[in-house]
């Protein structure tokens, strides 16, 4: 008698809980430890890594509006600061996804938090992985989100597509990761978190299983 096939959420959870073999990506220009004032703590934030439950899973991303003060026009996960009333990173990620793209928290099966990522702007971001049904209808918040789109998880987690680039920023050379898919440029903190997630899940091995 054949064994039942584990659900996508169960496979992701097992990979997330497995002993890790690599450390999180730490690009020096993305870490503000050296510039934080004594006693100053990074701002806690969370994002939702929403994976669609398909035979070939996808990942939900947003493109920010061009009018935002920070990260205008950039590709990002739904997410933001952790408020005092939130139930930690998971509560914040679900709230922000509901506010930004109209995703019902009840539609999300939480897998768990992944490696935190410290940004150059002083945020410490916890990616929260969750599995959602495919083909949901999203409602972008017009003041923040210009578009919601789905990318193939195989593509964005494949190390072959993780390109390390550099640029001058405020007089110094800043290194960052970049992933290009379907005309969308995914870079900076979002790309770095995807690189971390690929390593944490050992995605090439998991995808081939």
Radius of gyration: 17 Å
Order of SSEs:
HEEEEHEEEEHEEEHH
* Portion of residues within helices: 10-25%
* Secondary-structure content class: alpha+beta
What does this structure look like?
The protein has 209 residues and is an alpha+beta fold. Helix content is 23%, strand content 33%. It has helices spanning 8-17, 88-101, 153-156, 188-201, 203-208; strands at 43-52, 58-64, 75-76, 79-81, 109-113, 117-118, 123-132, 145-152, 163-169, 172-181, 184-187. The strands form two sheets. Strands 1, 2, 3, 4, 5, 6, 7 and 8 form an eight-stranded mixed sheet that branches. Strand 6 (117-118) and strand 7 form a beta hairpin. The longest helix has 14 residues, at 88-101.
């Amino acid at each position: 008698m054949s064994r039942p096939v584990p659900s996508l959420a169960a496979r992701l959870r097992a990979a997330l809980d497995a002993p890790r073999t690599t450390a999180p990506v730490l690009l020096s220009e993305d870490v503000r430890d050296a510039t934080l004032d004594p006693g100053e703590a990074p701002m806690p934030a969370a994002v939702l890594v929403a994976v669609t439950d398909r035979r070939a899973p996808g990942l939900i991303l947003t493109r920010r509006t061009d009018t935002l003060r920070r990260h205008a026009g950039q590709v990002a996960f739904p997410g933001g600061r952790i408020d005092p009333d939130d139930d930690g990173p998971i509560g914040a990620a679900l709230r922000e996804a509901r506010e930004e793209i109209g995703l019902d928290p009840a539609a999300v099966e939480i897998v768990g938090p992944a490696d935190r990522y410290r940004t150059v702007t002083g945020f410490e971001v916890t990616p929260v992985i969750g599995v959602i049904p495919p083909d949901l209808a999203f409602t972008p918040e017009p003041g923040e989100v210009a578009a919601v789109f789905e990318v193939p998880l195989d593509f964005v987690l494949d190390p072959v597509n993780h390109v390390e680039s550099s640029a001058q920023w405020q007089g110094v050379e800043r290194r960052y990761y970049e992933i290009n898919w379907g005309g969308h440029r995914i870079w900076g903190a979002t790309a770095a978190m995807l690189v971390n997630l690929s390593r944490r899940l050992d995605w090439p091995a998991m995808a081939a299983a």
